[in-house]
Amino acid sequence: MKYTNSELPNGESHDAKQRQLDNYRVNNFGTQMTTNQSVKVSGDEQSLKAGVRGPTLLEDFHLREKITHFDHERIPERVVHARGYAAHGEFVLHKCMKKYTSAKFLQGAGTKTPLFTRFSNVAGSKGSSDTARDVRGFAVKFYTEEGNYDLVGNNMPVFFIQDAIKFPDLIHATKPEPHNEIPQASTAHDTFWDFVANNQESAHMIMWLMSDRGIPTNFRKMEGFGVHTFRLVNSEGIAHFVKFHWKPKLGMHSLVWDEAQQISGKDPDFQRRDLWENINAGSFPEYDLGVQLIPEDDQFMFDFDILDATKLWPEEIVSVEIIGTMTLNRNVDNVFAETEQVAFHPGNVVPGIDFTNDPLLQGRLFSYLDTQLLRLGGPNFAEIPINRPVCPFHNNQRDGFSRQRIDVGQVSYHKNSLADNTPSTTPADQGGYEHYQEKVEGHVIRAGSPSFDDHFSQARLFWNSMAPYEKQHIIDAFSFEVGKVQSQSVRQQVVDMFCNVDSGLSAAIATAVGVKRPECTPATSEAASPALSMKNTTFVPETLKVAVLIGDGFDSTAIGNAVRSLRNAGVTVDIISERIGSVKGRGGKTAVANQTFITASPVLYDSLFVGGGTSGNAAEFNSYMRNYIEEAWKHFKPIAFTNDGSRHIPMTSVQEGPGIIVEKKQSDVSQAYINALAKQRFWHRSIYK
């Protein structure tokens, strides 16, 4: 096989490319897949189950070997979710859930449970940037009186794949390409989109990732989801299927893509810094915990399979019931000891919470424990302080790396008479954990349920639910990501695939990435779910960050009043000038600038308040002012001007209208500006309203 010049976009010589291909062919082309023991594999897409909707079987040696190898591919940082940040807090239950679960921390309204929450990026390494387009992890460890319960999820309610056996393939495709270790923390490359085009169950998740949800403003303003379908089981043994939701009190808000890229260079720690600074300032992030519940007898009532992790339960069909609130109120004392050593595991449950036969969840129940064994050096990671339950634990497990507890006595087995059979088991009616007694029957089979086969209906539902500007952001994200793909064949496959979601979407991507527009069959469903659009979120000014821009001779009365009223509204204020320290205003009054035009950047703030003033170098001062204003304007942010500061408007592209406030009086800032701050973005500046 020979290459033509058109197939060598990077300028490689024919001989070099041919050697690379020949080497790959020798090792891979034409071969048959086997296990590491050279046993030929009959299927690599589905785990072994008891019936097509049954639980995954431990005897699936191919699944266990594949995931075990994947779990141990990176040391010492996490294979995924390596870049993370965390905080301590508490959960307060508002509504008794005794009707649905026997879990004690969900029984009495007002019950407080300490917890630890870690947010993370999935794809990048520990040293990557916070603001990359990516899924964000949202993992919560509840230290309950019955033991630790881990709710390990993401900021998106669905996932790329339906079966855990494909998880190593997904991450291999997502990570930097192995031949050159490029690109870092980005899915804008060939292997990821090749995986997407050839594993079309990912369509729904891709719509979420390409939307504004993929670049949240910060951890305080993004939702969290348990992703999987779990079970709640009450004391009478009655079960309900459940999905968990975290809803931020500050609403859901996102960055603009250009803004996210700039922040990545200006402050790669932007989101972790935001969490740290707000908790230190007493602006504690809060999230309501909601549940969606489906009685066991109703599981087949829907046009999707409730066990399919690539599907959500639309809130208009299954409402979200708020049952409590999480508050993050204390930063970590040591990032390594706490954030890095915390070990989450979806298999850490307490009585009253159980699993389902979701094949992605079933594989996670094995994988998380396995990966902690390598990453934390052995089986005793539960003894690390951040992982320790608040209630004592007793068992016959002994020794191993990093054992901290000094066990005494001669007995380390069950059953025994020498220690009066202690530690002893606890009957279920006295608090012992008992798995839900679901009837399981079926042939041992490597296959998926036909009820998982619809890959595009909910992707279309998501698209239909977006506001026009949100749709344009999705098109722009596809255009950037797929536009980075070198293979024309892969670009065409992606465009053809999303023809199944929306013809306009696929046509727009095709035009942007230079491939043929496919002939799409018009969509038959216009169903939408308003809950999926971020335009319907909460809008408040609290905890927003405003940059006040001043120079010598600024109107000190107007600026003093503005800073006071902004802080009274819960807004954080930075004063920015040419130099750090005192800046003289009119009448001899001064203000203290804590940032300069160089050390700060407009992309690091939610809004600007332009106070005016002068400088010995007027040209440079005006240039800084103009650049700050232009950037904020371009990113749809509200901007306020004092009467003096408004002289900078004619130097810029700014046009008067909503979100542009000129404060002509010296009194406190107007309510119009506070309202504009709360709105945060003014999309009318785009043609996509």
UniProtKB/TrEMBL annotation:
The keyword Metal-binding applies. Its cofactor is heme. Its EC number is 1.11.1.6. Residues 34-422 form the Catalase core domain. This is Catalase. Belongs to the catalase family. HPII subfamily. The keyword Manganese does not apply. Keywords: Heme, Hydrogen peroxide, Iron, Metal-binding, Oxidoreductase, Peroxidase. GO terms for molecular function: catalase activity. InterPro entries: Catalase, Catalase_AS, Catalase_clade2, Catalase_clade2_helical, Catalase_core, Catalase_haem_BS, Catalase_immune_responsive, Catalase_large_C. It catalyses: 2 H2O2 = O2 + 2 H2O. Pfam families: Catalase (PF00199), Catalase-rel (PF06628), Catalase_C (PF18011). Gene3D superfamilies: 1.20.1370.20, 3.40.50.880, Catalase core domain (2.40.180.10). Decomposes hydrogen peroxide into water and oxygen; serves to protect cells from the toxic effects of hydrogen peroxide. SMART domains: Catalase.
